[in-house]
Write a structure and sequence with these properties.
It contains 33 helices and 17 strands. It is of the alpha+beta class. The strands form four sheets. It has a six-stranded antiparallel β-sheet with strand order 1-2-3-4-6-5, with helices on one face. Strands 12, 13, 14, 15, 16 and 17 form a six-stranded mixed β-sheet that branches. Strand 15 (388-397) and strand 16 (400-409) form a beta hairpin. The longest helix has 20 residues, at 108-127.
């Protein structure tokens, strides 16, 4: 099908044919409405006959039109007229990269600049779920005014967040020449007929970049079949074999693009653009190495991504960056088990940069709600009310570690700084400190003497200890009986590697401090261990808020030293007002002693700092329940359970609130749910038996009591839970006997004895009054 000059398609008058190919004819045309020249691409006749092709053609171009990226051909319009589907684009003046390569190789610096533009265009497309799948020199245009444009998304696969049937591409038929031309740029997965995702475009980009530098195709063979076989099995000739002086860093970038396995390539086009910018960064813009290790980080690397500590500087003042959020670094390794590494690096950068004067750094509890691949850092920065955002990616493979980080101005989205650090895993501490120093330098700030001292006290020079600490924190944050035990193992191993590691002792204290809540072991065993670890951490660094908070938890839940607990919680909050756990545990202290309004105010602050914390939200409901505000408690805990319906520690207080409203069916269901999702932890057995008893199901309650007593022979079960069931059965004598045992065990739940409504009927008993005095809840 050919459209003659002078013909019209809608408001567009055809002026002349520009070119044609398997995916359609392209014409120069005149937009009669806006009085400008445009290009029109027409869906070829043989594809127009394919069912649904026209609608897919329109959908593809609409998807690309939404990109609005300067390195992607702009789409102005799509339409159909006289049975012809067409797309209207900007009209470019210049030549394709294919045409330019007929003259030979391109100087490496110019090739790298073209590569940056292409990579940034691909990054924008990939972010919208668009995979090009046909990247080659024919589809890259060099304009007369020096711009670079990606053309022809006709083979693209669009991945909208809609139904699977929308994940389509335009089916194509191409002649032998086109197949031959495209075959040299296919990824191995395309050759095999597998799904092509973002790393496939990156392989194709690597082929293009290689050709720009070498002046020849990376996998050129006599036939298409031989070319595709080479893509699967062969390596291209080394770029260093040519006459051109191509930097080793750039050669490594190309090699990384051309890895056979998708997971071994750059995992995002943004990473690729970043690496190319690093290669182009002039030596004068790089900081002078202060020591041999820094030179190693900047100049030598074990053939991973880029050899240097890659910095891309823009000349812009940073005196307005007075607040910063370090968003969770992305784990782009193939192994999800490496999540602890990316989380830990993020957390430690927060700790390091928090020591900078006149810089507000958002707390971990707030930034970790932005963990995930689809986060818009500029929007996150606005949500967090900061002026700067740091993002990063971590890859660990075969003992080599690659960390990339970027600093963004939230106001305009501009990149202010970027660095890429590649070294052996054993250099992780040095790499992390280098990142913190680079960001500090760019912000024009440095830590105070006291801040440097605090960091030195908390840190370790042992890479092994540091890695074990990161794993411990990762599992502690997951808060189940099993993960708490694993966390203890990792923290203890970290201490064995470095007995002077304050943070590891604080982590160990945190674990033992909450053991009581999850009935992991006898409180008389975990309590002293928590106290000893907290005191050791404070002996190393008395300014560690986490350790003061843990010591406060021990004073409250184990020693029932209420004045000591308040002192430690307040000290923790003074040291780190953004530490949500300190506000949370302090609220429990206030609630247990009957100061519910102060407790709720402290919990409100904790939720402001960590709005997605399940335990803080659930315990807010628990405190409302203790304050006899059960309707509010139910609403609050339901909101917490909307975030995670399988959060066991939310179902128990919800059941307690239902029970006080005599909604016994609902209460029993919640206690049962808590047991079902807690993987055998007995913490809700007492509540279930009590609810059955007060609901008139005394046979079931006694059966529950028998089961609890039998279970207590095999593992630790808090005597408090057994006392709760006897209270429901109105057996005051045995209830008080078991409360005495709970007192001897130092059970955590004893701190709620004064405010738990299930014990209201015991308040007149002299033995109960004695219990309250011995727990320190009454004079």
């Amino acid at each position: 099908m050919s459209i003659p000059a002078g013909a019209r398609l809608g408001p567009y008058q055809i002026l002349a044919a520009i070119g044609a190919g398997g995916m359609g004819e392209v014409y120069r045309a005149r937009d009669t409405r806006l009085d400008r020249d445009v290009a029109i691409k027409v869906l070829p006749e043989h594809l127009a006959r394919t069912p649904g092709a026209a609608s897919r053609f329109e959908r593809e171009f609409k998807a690309v039109a939404a990109l609005s990226q300067p390195n992607i051909l702009a789409i102005f319009d799509v339409g159909a007229d006289q049975g012809i589907s067409f797309a209207v684009t900007e009209l470019l003046e210049g030549e394709t990269l294919h045409k330019r390569l007929e003259e030979g190789a391109i100087p490496w610096r110019q090739a790298a600049k073209v590569g940056v533009a292409v990579a940034e265009g691909l990054a924008a497309a990939h972010a919208k779920g668009i995979i090009h799948r046909d990247l080659k020199p024919h589809n890259i245009f060099l304009t007369s005014d020096g711009r670079v444009k990606i053309l022809d998304f006709g083979l693209a696969r669009v991945k909208p967040s809609a139904s699977p049937q929308d994940q389509t591409s335009i089916p194509t038929e191409t002649d032998a020449g086109i197949v031959m031309g495209t075959a040299g740029y296919m990824s191995p997965e395309q050759v095999r007929g597998d799904r092509a995702d973002a790393p496939s475009d990156i392989f194709s980009f690597g082929c293009v970049l290689y050709e720009m530098l070498a002046g020849r195709r990376a996998f050129r063979r006599e036939t298409a079949a031989q070319t595709m076989a080479a893509i699967l099995d062969a390596e291209p000739p080394a770029l260093a074999d040519g006459d051109a002086q191509i930097p080793g860093d750039l050669q490594r970038v190309v090699a990384h693009c051309l890895e056979k396995h998708p997971r071994q390539r750059f995992q995002s086009a943004q990473d690729l653009a970043f690496a190319l910018k690093a290669v182009l960064a002039p030596a004068a813009a790089l900081p002078v190495p202060a020591n041999p290790l820094r030179r190693i980080l900047m100049v030598t690397a074990p053939a991973v991504v880029v050899a240097a500590a890659a910095l891309y500087w823009l000349n812009r003042p940073l005196d307005t960056i007075d607040s910063l959020a370090i968003l969770p670094f992305a784990n782009v390794s193939a192994d999800p088990a490496k999540e602890y590494l990316s989380d830990g690096i993020t957390e430690n950068l927060i700790n390091d940069l928090s020591q900078l004067p006149k810089l507000r750094v958002t707390a971990r509890s707030l930034v970790f709600r932005y963990k995930g691949p689809q986060v818009d850092p500029q929007k996150a920065g606005r949500d967090l009310h900061v002026r700067g955002v740091v993002t990063g990616r971590v890859t660990e493979r075969d003992g080599a570690l690659n960390i990339q980080a970027e600093l963004m101005n939230v106001t305009d989205g501009a990149q202010l700084w970027g660095g890429q650090y590649s070294q052996r895993f054993s250099e992780i501490l040095a790499m992390q400190r280098e990142i913190a120093r680079a960001i500090s330098a760019k912000l024009g700030k440095s830590p105070t003497v006291d801040g440097q001292k605090r960091l030195a006290n908390r840190s370790t020079e042992s890479t092994e200890a540091y890695q074990l600490y990161l794993k411990g924190r990762y599992y502690w944050n997951r808060r189940t009986e099993e993960t708490l035990k694993r966390a203890v193992e990792y923290f203890q191993q970290a201490i064995d590697k470095d007995p002077g590691y304050a943070l590891a002792y604080a982590g160990l204290a945190d674990c033992y401090a909450v053991y009581n809540s999850y009935q992991v072991e006898l409180p008389r065993e975990s309590g002293p261990k928590a106290k000893a670890a907290a005191i050791k951490a404070l002996a190393i660094d008395n300014s560690l808020a986490q350790a003061h908070s843990s010591l406060g938890m021990v004073h409250m839940s184990y020693e029932w030293d209420w004045a000591g607990a308040e002192r430690e919680f307040q000290r923790a909050i003074d040291l780190d007002p953004n530490y949500a756990t300190a506000h949370h545990w302090y609220a429990i202290c206030l609630a247990s002693t009957g100061r519910s309004e102060q407790a709720l105010a402290s919990l409100e602050r904790a939720r402001e700092l960590d709005p997605l914390s399940l335990i803080i939200n659930a315990d807010t409901g628990l405190v409302l329940h203790f304050a006899r505000r059960d309707d509010e408690a139910i609403d609050q805990i339901r909101k917490a359970l909307e975030m995670d319906p399988n959060f066991a520690a939310g179902h128990r207080p919800l059941g307690m609130a239902y029970e006080q409203k005599m909604m016994y069916t609902e209460a029993i269901a919640e206690f049962q749910k808590a047991l079902d999702v807690s993987r055998g932890n007995p913490f809700a057995l007492g509540s279930l038996g009590h609810a059955q008893a007060v609901a008139g199901q005394r046979v079931q309650a006694r059966r529950e009591l028998s089961d609890v007593l039998e279970l207590s022979k095999r593992r630790y079960v808090s005597p408090f839970d057994i006392a709760v069931i006897y209270t429901g059965l109105d057996d005051k004598g045995r209830a008080l006997e078991w409360l005495e045992k709970a007192l001897d065990d130092r059970s955590l739940e004893m701190i709620f004895l004064k405010v738990d409504p299930r014990f209201d009927r015991l308040h007149a008993e002299p033995r109960f009054a004695s219990l309250l005095r011995r727990v320190g809840l009454t004079p």
